[in-house]
């Protein structure tokens, strides 16, 4: 949206199909790639529901509105010793630094991300009436709480996806299991896809995952060595390559190592990187430079001098809080 004049992204499936499939333009965010992913799931015969969630920003220590979408998919259980029954898994292809495989929807369940150090887990939280209602008098008899109050309180459970950090587990986003539909996604898209939306209209944020060709031949041996289940780990986490552009930074990580981390010097260089390293913007030319030059997401580094950004995204800190919406 930053390099095109209309400054918006459509959440309508016909537009998404045209963008990704017919014209192979690539590039999008959760309210585009996850609905398309669910169409693929449906075609393949999987049962699922779409949900909406709130993204946590560690930069501002705050939660967004319901502006992220993920999928809950009904899959054969991969958990040993529990038979072959089906269970619900969280599956998300639209969150920047996201799990690379479905995560069993069970409190505290963990799976590896990229490399041997990154992990993700889901935790369940119960929100009680005291968190939203007026505080009760100290002498209130709990036995006299209205049945509807208890019912409403019991329906406030929320799941949170968390990512492991050196300092501990950090929240990524929360979601409930309430099924959502196309009109819900369109409403969320209006809040995140307009010329002043944060962060998508104020910075360039791109993530691409690949299987590194130099590490891939060792994948099967490492899976067996680490006792990973083939159903969830068709490739070892150490062979995953992550490429990112975060505003004026180009970053490449392979497994646990950061192999590239440098500053982008010009808008032309950033466009070239998006074309060459990410396969994006192939349908736009030099006019893209004119399109972005007056937008908040324009490159803020000129002549090698970095300007300090007010929104706290000068470096790569807080990527997870601003990567998905």
From TrEMBL:
Entries under Pfam families matching the protein: Acetyltransf_2
SUPFAM superfamilies membership: Cysteine proteinases
Spans traversing the lipid bilayer: none
Leader sequence segment: none
GO molecular function, one term: acetyltransferase activity
Family of the protein in this entry: Belongs to the arylamine N-acetyltransferase family.
Annotated protein name in UniProt: Uncharacterized protein
Origin species: Sporisorium scitamineum
């Amino acid at each position: 949206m930053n390099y095109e004049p209309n400054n918006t992204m459509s959440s309508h499936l016909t537009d998404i199909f045209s963008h990704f499939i017919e014209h192979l333009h690539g590039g999008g965010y959760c309210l585009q790639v996850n609905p398309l992913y669910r169409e693929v799931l449906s075609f393949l015969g999987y049962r699922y529901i779409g949900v909406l969630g709130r993204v946590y920003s560690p930069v501002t220590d705050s939660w967004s509105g319901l502006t992220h979408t993920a999928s809950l998919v009904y899959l054969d259980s991969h958990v040993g010793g529990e038979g072959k029954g089906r269970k619900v898994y969280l599956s998300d292809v639209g969150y920047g630094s996201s799990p690379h495989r479905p995560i069993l929807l069970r409190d505290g369940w963990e799976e590896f991300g990229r490399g041997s150090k990154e992990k993700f887990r889901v935790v369940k939280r119960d929100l009680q009436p005291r968190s939203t209602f007026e505080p009760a008098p100290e002498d209130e008899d709990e036995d006299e709480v209205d049945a509807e109050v208890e019912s409403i309180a019991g329906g406030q459970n929320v799941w949170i996806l968390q990512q492991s950090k050196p300092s501990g587990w950090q929240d990524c986003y929360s979601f409930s299991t309430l099924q959502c539909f196309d009109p819900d996604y369109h409403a969320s898209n209006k809040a995140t896809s307009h010329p002043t939306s944060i962060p998508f209209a104020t910075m360039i944020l791109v993530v691409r995952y690949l299987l590194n060709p130099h590490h891939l031949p060792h994948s099967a041996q490492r899976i067996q060595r680490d006792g990973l289940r083939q159903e969830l780990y068709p490739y070892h986490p150490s062979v995953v390559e992550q490429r990112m552009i975060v505003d004026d930074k180009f970053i490449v990580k392979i497994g646990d190592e950061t192999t590239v981390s440098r500053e982008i010097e010009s808008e032309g260089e950033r466009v070239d990187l998006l074309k060459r390293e990410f396969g994006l913007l192939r349908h736009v030319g030099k006019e893209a430079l004119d399109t972005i030059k007056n937008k908040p997401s324009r490159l803020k580094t000129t002549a090698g001098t970095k300007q300090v950004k007010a929104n706290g995204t000068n470096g790569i800190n807080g990527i997870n809080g601003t990567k998905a919406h």
